[in-house]
Amino acid sequence: MKIPTAAGFVTLMLFCLVHAEICPLSCICKPLGEMKGWLVDCSSKGLKEVPALSVSTRKLYLQNNSMTTVRAGAFDNLRNLEEVNVSDNPWNCDCDILYLKLWLEDFSESSIANVICATPASNERKPLSQLSGNELDSCRKSLPIKCLDFFWRDLALITFAVLVLILTLCALRKHLRKIVLCV
Ligand SMILES: *[C@@H]1O[C@H](CO)[C@@H](O)[C@H](O)[C@H]1NC(C)=O
Ligand SMILES: *[C@@H]1O[C@H](CO)[C@@H](O)[C@H](O)[C@H]1NC(C)=O
Fold first, then answer.
1. DSSP conformation letters of 83-130
2. How do 57-61 and 83-85 pair as beta strands?
3. Better-predicted residue by pLDDT, 183 or 74
4. Which atom of ligand 2 is nearest to the CA of 113?
5. How far is residue 108's CA from residue 80's CA, in Å, rounded to a whole number?
């Protein structure tokens, strides 16, 4: 009697451990048969971001949440994924949405079909699949701004170097005169 109970307990503990590793908090997960991976249902949970996901995720439901963007690389480890749904989220379609757009396009045509932008106003209700780089606002601006940053930094460094040179020359002038006088 004792041994089966202990074995059952260990099995349960093991199941809980595996389950905790596979199932993000507040999601509902179901095994899809032996070694077939898991169905991870995180839909309608008010999630603001993609939870940490296990590599054994095979079906992933993230629809009807409050996600506005996906951190770059968030889906990269999901090598066994077969199905994903990210529709009905208030996606903010600025430059940062590019990772999600490219990843979904790469994953499957149907996965990006129902993905609609909520903000910014210029992209409201537009399908993510139809946005081009130009419409993804800050994408265009970010490069010149970075270049400008480098320009100002370089200008500041050069100005500083010239100032130091002038001050050094001024300071040395007295000594130089002395040296000249001595000679
Ligand atoms: C979407 O999620 C909200 C809770 O966040 C829930 O009340 C609502 O019924 C869900 N809608 C659908 C269509 O599942
Ligand atoms: C995603 O879920 C929504 C709402 O449940 C559904 O209407 C839509 O067809 C699903 N999309 C995909 C690609 O499964």
1. EEE--SS-EE-SGGGHHHHHHHHHH-HHHHHT-BEEESGGGTT-BGGG
2. parallel
3. 74
4. 13
5. 14
The minimum-distance atom of ligand 2 relative to the CA of 111 is 13
User: Alpha-carbon dihedral of residues 157, 162, 165, 166, nearest 10 degrees?
Assistant: -140
In ligand 2, which atom is closest to the CA atom of 87? 1
Residue whose structure tokens are 């451990």: 17
Q: What's the mean pLDDT in 78-91? A: 96
Residue 174: count of CB within 10 angstroms of its CB = 9
Question: Which residue of 64, 66, 67, 89 sits with most ligand 1 atoms within 8 Å of its CB, as the best mutation to test the pocket?
Answer: 64
Ligand 1 centroid – CA 20 distance (Å): 24
What was the pLDDT predicted at 152?
81
pTM, rounded to two decimals: 0.71
Which residue minimizes the CA distance to atom 14 of ligand 1? 44
